[in-house]
Amino acid sequence: MKTRSGMGAERFLAAWAGGSVRLSGRQGRQCRGLLIAVLCCTTGLGQDGISDSVFHGTTPPGVEAGAAAGSYALGGFDNVNLFNGQLSLALPLLRIGGRGEAGYTITARIEQQWTVTTNACDECSPQPLPQLLAEYTNTGDLGDLENYRYEPGVMYGRTGLAFATSVSQQPGCEAGQPVTHKVLTRFTFAFADGRTIELRDIQREGEADTNPMPGICNPAPGSVRGRTFYAGDGSGAMYVLDQPFQEFTGWVVKRQESHVTLLGPNGILMFPDGTVYRIEGGGVVKWIRDRNGNRVEFHRAPVGPVQKLVKITDSLRRETVICYALLPCQSSNPEGYDRIRFPGANGQQRELRIYFASLGSVLFGGGLKNIVDSTLEQGLFVGSDTTPPLINEPQVFNPDRMIDKIQLPNAQTYEFRYNSYGELARVILPTGGMVDYTYAGLPGTKPSGLWTQNDRTTAFRAVQTRTESTADQVVSGKAQFQYAFLPSGACFGFAGCTVATVKSYTGNGAQFLGEERHYFHGQPFDALLMEAWTYPDWRTGREYRTESYDKFSQPLRAVQREWEQRAAVPWWTGAAAEAPPNQPRTRQVDTVAVAGAVGRLARKTFWYGPHRVNNVADVEETDYGASGAWNGTLSPGAVLRRTHLDYRTDLAYTANDFLSTSQPWTHAISYLPSLVTAEWVCGTGAGWCTEGLATVRTRTYYDQETPQNLGRWPGTTARPSLAGDWSGRWEVRAGTGRRETDGSRAGPGPWSSGSTTRRAACGRCTIRGTTRPRSATATTAWEERRRATCSRSRRRSRTRRTTPCS
Q1: Which of 147, 204, 480, 706 is geometrically suited to a Cys-Cys bond with 503, CB 3.0 to 4.6 A?
Q2: By mean pLDDT, which of 217-231, 443-457, 690-704, 768-782 is the weakest?
Q3: Can you name the residues that pair with 13 across neighbouring β-strands?
Q4: For residue 761, how many other CB atoms are within 10 A of its CB?
Q5: Residue 50 phi/psi, 5° resolution?
Q6: Which residues contact 275 (CB under 8 A, 6 or more apart)?
Q7: Closest Cα partner for 399 from 22, 15, 16, 18?
């Protein structure tokens, strides 16, 4: 169910919570209409501002940025979201890691996302209601990324509020003033490459609170949503706050000259592989820790008016230092570029340099334009295409912090050029080769890409072509993107779809190689009018069919995906197809191999466990079936293989898997809900795959050593925690154990072969060994090797060497 927005008293108003929101500097405006944005901050609240856009409350799939699931990989660093045409370039600069799995990749992200943010006037009181004023912004849902450049990610929150005009006298209210009607807070973690995870509270399963407090004219705390927030996308991410989060429903407007800084609540963000992000100090990451205790730490210092990342210490205590053009490492020698200095081989220091320039200095074709004007020849957008009055008067769009080039440690460079909209138009590679991009609006939008309905406006500037050229400007390859929105009759039984066609060319760009057609549920515009306390339909934006064609436009292959999700959240009463996302996952994949007009279908079916993480429990794979029309109804062949997997489900490994909110959270509980304990592979035959029918079976054991056994191999399993890291406890970490595999039997009966793979932790290192066949002698030899290796590792550690276990 979608609630359509419109002008009037019952208008849902939304919250921004990332980066910055640009507010007008004008004062003394007339007030009319209604628009409020509440930025959700720490429990003590922070700065709040007034704005509204399509990003209020949540990020609709149609305007999702970054390399979203299902994005089409173009090269090694660029992707296009085929559902909305959004181009994302994320150039990996430096991998921060060391020992273990803790770490991330420093990324140079270039992505332009225009929208229209509707602001209220600066100095309004609750009555009369503020005037709606439209302002064109190019910072997407995260706001200005400048403050978060080089970060592993940032946590921000958005509180959506709905208001209704007060009819009766409320405490502290006058008749006609707005009173809070709905309120919902969600948190979003944005990774360095632009991918995001949205988290909702477990206490109410993300349900909006109805009439939580007297109203906006009587500032007061709202509902308490508890400490635990979980991802509804099936990724298994969980955000646990230090303190219960209490929503705020009051009128709080603190005017800022240019920025609204959002403060994220302190807590820990956990992933199913045991990785933990500590969130502190305004939504930024203080450290990253893997399940074996390896930790990457982040240090920040004031750079101008904000705190920025200046040093990273990895698990081997190596330091990466970041200096900024606005605050060089040596203030007496301004450098004019950002610098990332890191240790190389033999202790030599190496560095990356990121240069910036104004848009006018790095244009590729065309010239600078006004943001808004009467025609596209003079402006990027036409002012009459937006319903509310404009804040932007004719002013030249010429930002001064566009990435100009990136210099690698070997002095080679990537260079970047842009069009008048600030969109990436050309990448010049270190080899001299070039990649060019062109853009246009999606079908159904204005020539500039603007889409407007009611008072909601955004821009869909979709990539149209990607052209690769050699250093001497000879075209070597080209991709062309076409977008269409089809009715239900052309969507293989679904009610409306988006079809993105990717055509590939080679030679001089004229020799056709083939094409792919990608079918998505819904259209990018579907969720743009929803209220900020609601959710988009769970299927919107998910790809369900892919077709491949050769250079003669003959079909080669088709892949059909059937999506499902767990039961709808408890509070949902609408249609199942319109329910909020609740761990959506692939139920079935049909692959059709085509020869001419004839196809044969093979099927792969998935079943999942009962937990909120999408752990695959059973898989069934079939052979190709009988021939038939490739785009008609086909049947799969006989079953070839069935696979069954079991997982650790005890509390010590799953952090209670969100299933109980009555028990208090304790950091002594590890979060490893996807540890496979058994895998059985069965051949043909009816029924589920069981251990008795398995032809291959594997069992994995974790953390078998106990604290009582640590006298033999100290530090191999349980360990005292790191300094300052919830000291004085033991923890499981799945770092020690063994895996036993039996195989080669036709059915029930004796096993003909087997092996054991053992894994042990030495301090924070691991060693691995395999014995074949399994025997007491081989096991004893392996344990002796483990003892000697761990001892050698500890001696190296005492001499401050960083040689890992071997």
Answers
A1: 480
A2: 768-782
A3: 161
A4: 27
A5: -120, 115
A6: 101, 102, 288, 289, 290, 291
A7: 22
User: In angstroms, what CA-CA distances link 764 with 25, 288, 420, 551, 709?
Assistant: 54, 15, 51, 53, 17
Of 395, 465, 505, which Cα lies nearest the Cα of 24?
395
- Closest to 439 measured CA to CA, from 26, 84, 47, 59: 84
Report the relative pairing of strands 295-303 and 284-289 from DSSP bridges.
Answer: antiparallel
If you count them, how many residues does the chain have? 806
Residue 694 CA: distances (Å) to CA of 378, 642, 645, 738, 746 = 71, 9, 12, 20, 9
Rounded distance between C-alpha atoms, residue 112 and residue 138, angstroms: 6
Among 94, 106, 122, which residue's Cα sits nearest to residue 191? 106
Sign (positive or negative) of CA dihedral 662, 665, 670, 675: positive
Give the mean model confidence (pLDDT) for residues 85-90: 89
Q: Is residue 348 within 8 Å of residue 372, measured between CB atoms?
A: no
> Mapping DSSP to helix (H, G, I), strand (E, B) and coil, where does residue 488 land?
helix
Rg over alpha carbons for the chain, rounded to the nearest Å, is: 28
The DSSP H or E segment spanning 653 is helix 651-654
Closest CA to 638 of 652, 657, 625: 625
279 with 89: CB under 8 angstroms? no
User: What is the pLDDT confidence band of residue 245, given thresholds at 50, 70 and 90?
Assistant: confident
CA neighbor of 285 nearest in space, from 189, 185, 352: 189
**Tokens found for residue 700:** 């994995």
Closest C-alpha among 444, 443, 449 to residue 423: 449
Please name which of 100, 97, 94, 71 lies closest in space to residue 273, comparing C-alpha atoms: 100
DSSP string, 364-419: -SS---EEEESSTTTEEEEGGGSSSPBS--S-B---S-EEEEEE-TTS-EEEEEE-
Dump pLDDT digits (tens) for 593-652: 999 889 999 999 999 988 788 999 999 999 999 999 998 899 999 999 999 999 988 777
Name all contacts of 750-753 with Cβ < 8 Å and 24+ positions apart. Answer: none
Quote the tokens at residue 680. 């059985």
Which residue from 60, 86, 82, 72 is spatially nearest to 198, judged by alpha carbons? 60
Q: What does the pLDDT average to over 155-170?
A: 66
Only one residue has tokens 């609240």, namely 45
Listed in sequence order, the residues at least 6 apart from 270 whose beta carbon sits closer than 8 Å to its beta carbon are 237, 238, 239, 240, 276, 277, 655, 671
- Nearest C-alpha neighbor of 251 from the set 282, 213, 203, 278: 213
Domain ranges across the chain? 11-583, 633-798
pTM of the model: 0.81
Residue 188's contacts (CB-CB under 8 Å, 6 or more residues apart) are 17, 18, 59, 155, 156, 157, 158, 196, 197, 198, 199
Q: What are the pLDDT digits (tens) for 655-688?
A: 654 444 444 445 555 788 899 999 999 987 768 8
* C-alpha distances in Å from residue 455, one per residue of 305, 523, 655: 34, 19, 44
Largest Cα span, the chain: 87
Burial of 167 per CB tally in 10 Å (0-12, 13-18, 19+): exposed
Taking 80 as the threshold, does the pLDDT of residue 402 lie above it? yes
Tokens of 686: 């009816």
Name the strand (E) or helix (H) holding 200: strand 196-201
Q: What's the pLDDT score for residue 799? A: 38
The phi and psi torsions of 361 (rounded to 5 degrees) equal: -90, -15
Q: Which amino acid is at 117?
A: T
Supply 729's token pair: 């406890």
